[in-house]
Amino acid sequence: RxxxxxxxxxxxxxxxxxxxxxxxxxxxxxxxxxxxxxxxxLHYQPKVDMGSGQVIGLEALIRWQHPQRGxxxxxxxxxxxxxxxxxxxxxxxxxxxxxxxxxxxxAAGCALPVSVNIAARHLQAPGFVxxxxxxxxxxxxxxxxxxxxxxxxxxxxxxxxxxxxxLTAAQDLGxxxxxxxxxxxxxxxxxxxxxxxxxxxxxxxFVRGMAQDPGDRAIVQAxxxxxxxxxxxxxxxxxxxxxxxxxxxxxxxxxxxxxGFARPLPPEQVPAxxxxxxxxxxxxxxxxxxS
Length: 291
Ligand code: C2E
Ligand code: MG
Ligand code: MG
Ligand code: MG
What we know:
The protein is of the alpha/beta class. The protein has helices at residues 2-36, 78-81, 85-107, 120-123, 128-138, 160-172, 188-194, 204-209, 214-229, 242-251, 270-280; strands spanning 40-49, 55-66, 70-72, 114-118, 147-152, 176-182, 199-202, 233-236, 255-256. One magnesium ion binds at residues 59, 117, 150, 180.
């Protein structure tokens, strides 16, 4: 009887598995069409200097403008394409789109650095640096130093040397790098020690928890200390309110990004947001322990 049950649940599993596979297949097909039909968008989330109220850059974040479903967030479609060749095509599109936007903003006299998220697989794909160089040639009005790549650690330590080679070559083109979600991977410290990155991005999970959880606060402090010791910059993600901003500032982290300043914005709203933010900035009160 146990055997029979086992067989039944196996059948059930197979059917569910088939349905999931088919749904994934359909989504992949829809995403290929989305790329061809120009349905992807980049939104831009401001990064600010929490000490001075200056806007220091923008992070490009992909969305899918679906004709029926509206704006679809990346968590709902990036996992489906990341193991497919489409992931590389979408990654190339993101880079090209960010450079087109930078060109437009440069012409309008509002050039801010833009950072682009790069999947580790994209970074290590053959010809990545050559395509990057070609894209930069096609956008001569954009100083390469305005383009930053945000690298998410993959967990495979043997990739480190390959990643290092690519970053060194891209560095020669003038680009800057940040380690995204720093502290959440398996080998963050090896990445910090071995890669030519300018900036550590403290993961938003630690940042959000730091007001209540002493462990999160200790991790945030440790990352700020590491950045100082290695002479790197540090930015906090997920800064949702002024209290967190004041706390981070008191700990020595000046750069921040989060809903407390702005949500990711469609590009046409960015220049007005920047002007409004700068005009309405109020200095943060230094955070007082135990208050
Ligand atoms: P990420 O690079 O760590 O980006 C930060 C994410 O946190 C964004 O979500 C952003 O909207 C969200 N966020 C920002 N501030 C706050 C806050 O104060 N509170 C909360 N709760 N969330 C905040 P999004 O846009 O959904 O992107 C999720 C992830 O998808 C990104 O995490 C990144 O890993 C990936 N991603 C986004 N765009 C691209 C892309 O163009 N290429 C690649 N390869 N990955 C991308
Ligand atoms: Mg990022
Ligand atoms: Mg992040
Ligand atoms: Mg993330």
